[in-house]
Design a protein that fits this description.
The protein is of the alpha+beta class. The protein folds into two domains: 2-235, L-amino peptidase D-ALA esterase/amidase (4-Layer Sandwich), CATH 3.60.70; 243-367, ArgJ beta chain, C-terminal domain (Ubiquitin-like (UB roll)), CATH 3.10.20. The chain contains eleven helices and 13 strands. A hairpin with a 2-residue loop joins strand 10 (311-317) and strand 11 (320-321). Helix 1 (24-34) packs across helix 2 (55-73), helix 2 runs parallel beside helix 3 (94-105) and helix 7 (254-266) packs across helix 9 (281-289). The radius of gyration is 22 Å and the shape is globular.
Length: 371
C-alpha cells in the first residue's frame, strides 16, 4: 500500500480507462474529480487486489479507504483519491487495508517516492519514478506501475504525478490529457486494457509559480515526466527483452497511422518475431493489412531503425523485398532497443508507439496469475 499526501489542498486532474468494465476506485475518483471546485489532499493506493467487478460492496470499500485516510491525515473524505490494482473479482480484505492506512499515515516523509513506487508494484520488477525541476522553480514528480495488461486508451495502469506549481483545474486537465496522449496512450505490452487504468495529476501551488492555460514550458515538463514513466512500463513489460519503437509514416491522417501502429504493436506474431530477432517482415505488412486502414500493398516500404531512431536497413521497397543483409537485420533485432518504420505511401501523417517483444516468460507469469 502507498499513501501520498499534500500539505495543502491541490487542484486535481485525472484520465481513466475507457474499458466499459471499470473498477470501483475508477468510478469513485471520476466522480470526485468531476465535482465542481474539487480540491484534493491525498491519494491512497493498494496493490494485489483491483477492487474491480465487486459491486456495491466494492464501492463501499473504496469510500472506506478514503474515509480512513482522511481521518488519519486530518482532511475530508472527499479530498482523498483511491487507487487499486491486482486481481479482478475479489473483495478487498478491509481489516488489512484499513490498518495499513493507519500505519502509512504514521510514516509519511517527503523523500518517500521510491518506496511509494515499490508499494504499488504487482508483476513489475522495479519501481518507476520520474522527477524534473524546471528553471522557473517548480517541480513535477511522478510514480507509475505497470508491466502487463497494457494497451491503454486514455491512461495506463496506475500513475500519480504531483507538482508544486499553481495550475487552475481546466489548464491542469488539458495539460494532462495532452501529456497522456503523447506518452501513456502510445505504449503496448500485450494488447489488453485494464479495468483500473488511472493517471492522476495534483497541483498544490506551494512553489508560488502560477501556470496559465496552454503554458508551453509546463506542458513540455509534464510530457517529459509522463514519457519517462510510460517508457519505463514498456521496458519492464512482463517477460520483455526488447524495447521496440513502431513508427508509421505516409498515412492519410493521424488516426489511420495510429490504427496501423497499434495493429503491429499488439500482434502476437510480430511480437514473437521481435523476441526471436526474426526479420520476418511479412508479419508486419500483414498486421498493417488487417488493421482496417485501406492500405495499398504496392506502396508499402519498411525499414529497421537503430536505438537512436535512425534508418539502418530497408527490408521492403514499394511492397517488394529490398536487397538487404539478413544477418545484419538479425544482429540489430538481437539488441535490447531498436525500432521499425512502415511508410504507407498514402499521405503526410505519421505517429509512433512503444511496444516490446512477447517471450515465454509472459506466458509463465500470466498462465498462473491467480493459481
Amino acid at each position: 500500500m502507498a499513501l501520498l499526501v499534500s500539505d495543502r489542498p491541490s487542484h486535481a486532474a485525472g484520465v481513466f480507462t475507457t474499458n466499459r468494465v471499470k473498477a470501483a476506485p475508477v468510478l469513485y475518483d471520476q466522480a470526485l474529480i468531476e465535482a465542481s471546485g474539487a480540491r484534493m489532499r491525498a491519494v491512497v493506493a493498494n496493490a494485489g487486489n483491483a477492487n474491480a467487478c465487486t459491486g456495491e460492496r466494492g464501492m463501499a470499500n473504496a469510500r472506506a479507504m478514503a474515509e480512513r485516510a482522511a481521518e488519519a491525515i486530518g482532511c475530508q473524505p472527499d479530498e482523498v483519491l483511491v487507487l487499486s490494482t491486482g486481481v479482478i473479482g475479489v473483495q478487498l480484505p478491509m481489516d488489512i487495508v484499513l490498518s495499513g492506512i493507519d500505519r502509512l499515515a504514521g510514516s509519511l516523509r517527503p523523500d518517500g517516492w521510491e518506496e511509494a513506487a515499490q508499494a504499488i508494484m504487482t508483476t513489475d520488477t522495479r519501481p518507476k519514478v520520474a522527477s524534473l525541476t524546471t528553471g522557473r522553480g517548480y517541480t513535477i514528480t511522478g510514480i507509475a506501475k505497470g508491466a502487463g495488461m497494457i494497451a491503454p486508451h486514455m491512461a495506463t495502469m496506475l500513475a500519480v504525478i504531483a507538482t508544486d506549481a499553481d495550475v487552475p483545474p481546466p489548464a491542469l486537465q488539458n495539460a494532462l490529457r495532452q501529456a497522456v496522449d503523447r506518452s501513456f496512450n502510445r505504449i503496448v505490452v500485450d494488447g489488453d486494457m485494464s479495468t483500473n487504468d488511472t493517471v492522476l495529476l495534483l497541483a498544490n501551488g506551494a512553489s508560488g509559480v502560477a501556470i496559465g492555460e496552454d503554458d508551453p514550458d509546463f506542458q513540455r515538463a509534464l510530457d517529459d515526466v509522463c514519457e519517462t514513466l510510460a517508457k519505463a512500463i514498456v521496458r519492464d513489460g512482463e517477460g520483455a527483452t526488447k524495447f521496440v519503437t513502431v513508427v508509421v509514416t505516409g498515412a492519410p491522417d493521424e488516426a489511420s497511422a495510429r490504427t496501423v501502429a497499434r495493429s503491429i504493436g499488439t500482434s502476437p506474431l510480430c511480437k514473437t518475431a521481435f523476441y526471436g530477432a526474426d526479420p520476418n517482415w511479412g508479419r508486419i505488412l500483414c498486421a498493417a493489412g488487417y488493421s482496417g486502414v485501406e492500405v495499398e500493398p504496392e506502396r508499402l516500404s519498411l525499414w529497421l531503425l537503430d536505438s537512436e531512431g535512425r534508418e539502418a536497413l530497408q527490408l521492403v521497397a514499394d511492397g517488394e523485398p529490398a536487397d538487404y543483409d539478413e544477418a545484419a537485420a538479425i544482429r540489430l533485432m538481437q539488441t535490447p532497443e531498436w525500432g521499425l518504420r512502415l511508410d504507407l505511401g498514402l499521405g503526410e501523417a505519421s505517429t509512433w508507439l512503444w511496444t516490446c517483444d512477447l517471450s515465454h516468460e509472459y506466458i509463465t507469469i500470466n498462465g498462473h496469475y491467480r493459481t
